């Protein structure tokens, strides 16, 4: 009768065990435990936290591997360095990826797929690094998304961006459905099942439009010269295969 429900929480998810590096269960008697305090001293609390969540699915057992923790440290360092790229930037492709990442991270957190949420942010960081400049708005969204995983670094970056309140008190970013649809897509061009080139077209381009554009590409023209196209296999926004 101390709480109004049968359990004192709304949801319970069983977690998997973190095993020792040899696959055995960790215990003091076996002498195979890992002291988190020592790792915090060397790589930082946020790195340890990200590493634990990135190791594998939350509900499955996984063996501890200190050797791979460097990747989690690099993940945080890359986010930190991206502040140097903040500037005027308008890029529809990046905006689309940002909103896809918001959706992916939000959905993954709800079902405790923390490892795939971090993977999605890594993909976003890769694209950010390719850009000459990234907007302050898009960088701020990245900081908000990473905050549950690396709270200390996120808070410091949030302050550097000029915010007077905590990132953990900010409103969680919401994705825009209209921005989830890419304006351009890359279509693979095949001839008799063999890849011969890539073509970037407007999303939802018709088969006739893609066929005409593909046939006018120099490398495709050369392959089908003096050949008769017997059949066309077209998968919208993905592939076109010219059978000659």
Widest sheet: strand ordering: 4-3-6-5
Structure summary, number of beta strands:
6
**Main β-sheet: number of strands, strand sense, barrel status?**
4 strands, mixed
Number of helical runs?
Answer: 9
Cα-to-Cα separation, first versus last residue? 77 Å
* Helicity level: 40-55%
Radius of gyration: 24 Å
Q: What general outline do the C-alpha atoms trace?
A: elongated
Low-confidence stretches: none
Beta-strand content: 5-15%
State the secondary-structure class: alpha/beta
Mean pLDDT: 89
> Which H/E pattern describes the elements?
EHHEHHHHHEEHHEE
Describe this structure in words.
There is one protein chain. Strand 5 (231-235) and strand 6 (239-243) form a beta hairpin. This protein has helices at residues 36-43, 45-54, 69-81, 92-110, 114-130, 136-146, 151-160, 207-215, 218-224, and strands at residues 18-19, 62-63, 184-191, 194-202, 231-235, 239-243. The model has no long low-confidence stretch (mean pLDDT 89). 43% of the residues lie in helices and 13% in strands. It is elongated. The chain is built from 9 helices and 6 strands, in the order E-H-H-E-H-H-H-H-H-E-E-H-H-E-E. The protein is α/β, with parallel strands linked by helices and 244 residues long.
At a glance:
The protein has helices spanning 36-43, 45-54, 69-81, 92-110, 114-130, 136-146, 151-160, 207-215, 218-224, and strands at 18-19, 62-63, 184-191, 194-202, 231-235, 239-243.
Summary keywords:
four-stranded mixed sheet; 9 helices; 6 strands; 244 residues; alpha/beta
């Amino acid at each position: 009768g101390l709480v109004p429900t049968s359990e004192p929480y709304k949801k319970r998810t069983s977690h998997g065990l973190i095993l020792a590096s040899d696959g055995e269960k960790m215990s003091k008697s076996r002498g195979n435990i890992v002291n988190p305090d020592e790792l915090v001293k060397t790589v930082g609390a946020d790195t340890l936290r990200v590493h634990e969540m990135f190791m594998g699915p939350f509900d499955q057992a996984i063996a501890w591997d200190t050797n791979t923790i460097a990747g989690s440290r690099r993940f945080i360092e890359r986010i930190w360095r991206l502040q140097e790229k903040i500037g005027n930037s308008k890029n529809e492709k990046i905006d689309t990826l940002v909103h896809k990442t918001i959706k992916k991270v939000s959905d993954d957190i709800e079902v405790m797929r923390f490892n795939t949420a971090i993977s999605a942010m890594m993909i976003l960081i890769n694209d950010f690094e390719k850009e000459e400049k990234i907007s302050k708005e898009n960088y701020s969204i990245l900081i908000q998304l990473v905050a549950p995983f690396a709270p200390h670094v996120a808070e410091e970056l949030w302050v550097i961006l000029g915010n007077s309140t905590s990132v953990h008190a900010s409103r969680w970013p919401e994705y825009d459905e209209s921005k989830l649809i890419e304006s351009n897509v890359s279509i693979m061009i095949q001839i008799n099942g063999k890849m011969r080139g890539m073509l970037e077209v407007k999303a939802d381009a018709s088969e006739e439009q893609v066929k005409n554009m593909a046939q006018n590409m120099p490398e495709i023209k050369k392959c089908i010269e003096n050949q008769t196209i017997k059949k066309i296999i077209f998968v919208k926004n993905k592939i076109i295969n010219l059978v000659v």
